[in-house]
Amino acid sequence: MKIEVNGETREVAAAQLDAALVELGWGEAKVATALNGSFVPAGARGATTLSDGDRLEVLSAMQGG
Amino acid sequence: MRDFYGTTLPLPLMLGTARYPSPAVMEAAFRQSAAPVATVSLRREQGAGQAFWDMVRGLGVHLLPNTAGCHSAREAITTAQMAREYFGTNWIKLEVIGHADTLQPDPFGLVEAAEALCADGFEVFPYTTEDQVLAARLVDAGCRVLMPWGAPIGSGLGLNNLHGLRSLRAAFPDVAMVIDAGLGLPSHAAQALEMGFDAVLLNTAVAEARDPAAMAEAFALACRAGALAAASGPMGQRDMAVPSTPVIGKAWL
């Protein structure tokens, strides 16, 4: 299915968010996730099912003021 | 003594981590100033997040994640939730921006987000103005710290509305307040602390100095001076001159 990952369209095979993160290369990365504008805690990724057209945000630490 | 959700700081200086010429210069600024709080943010992961996370963790300071760039309560709430998980802290510098040019807070979105986050266990540091009605709403929402601006973010103008800030300080004697944004010089920080504010938060004034580490130290010294002055009970101002040398005993010449 096609989903939007950090603003870019990506093709993923995995149906669950945790598996999709591994597929996208973030299996070991420390990240925070939001799906369609709502926070998905790390512990809930395995139970979060992706659908075609979903908007996924994968964030990490950045400089800030 | 006013604290920050139970945390007392050895130095009333919160320092941003953005806009430095290099990560090494940022580290030097923290080392040379001994600033005990660092503000951080969350952005789309593009490969550099892990290294930055390792670096800020290595600073050994309190982390204050922000919701910078959020223009709605919903965006800010989701960002805060993500930041709490990522950085492992209930502290959140809540920014809900209402205007792109002034970066002035959106008071309505700010209160809405503060209510939701305080109810959800966050310890909210709202970036606000000197408006007392807004301050009261934020305190009612559960905020025990307020962060009124000195001047627009990044402007370096100092304390723009002395009367408004003084009134705000006096109106909420039990609420810890941090002057956030707009400071350009150490004298601005000293002035804020002399007025009874509990800390200052700044970034650009240090990061864009020719020598950021030295400027960070200058701000640290100013913060110490200002806090010590506030605790020492400043004299009242008078309109007329009063001689400091005793008049009694002066020779008849």
Automatic annotation (TrEMBL), chain B:
Keyword check for Cytoplasm: yes
Enzyme Commission numbers on file: 2.8.1.10
Catalytic site positions: 93 (schiff-base intermediate with dxp)
Superkingdom as given in the UniProt entry: Bacteria
GO function term, MF aspect, one: thiazole synthase activity
GO cellular component, one term: cytoplasm
Catalytic activity, reaction form: [ThiS sulfur-carrier protein]-C-terminal-Gly-aminoethanethioate + 2-iminoacetate + 1-deoxy-D-xylulose 5-phosphate = [ThiS sulfur-carrier protein]-C-terminal Gly-Gly + 2-[(2R,5Z)-2-carboxy-4-methylthiazol-5(2H)-ylidene]ethyl phosphate + 2 H2O + H(+)
Keyword terms, alphabetized: Cytoplasm, Schiff base, Thiamine biosynthesis, Transferase
GO BP: thiamine diphosphate biosynthetic process
Family from the record: Belongs to the ThiG family.
Protein's UniProt name: Thiazole synthase
Species annotation: Sulfitobacter faviae
Gene: thiG
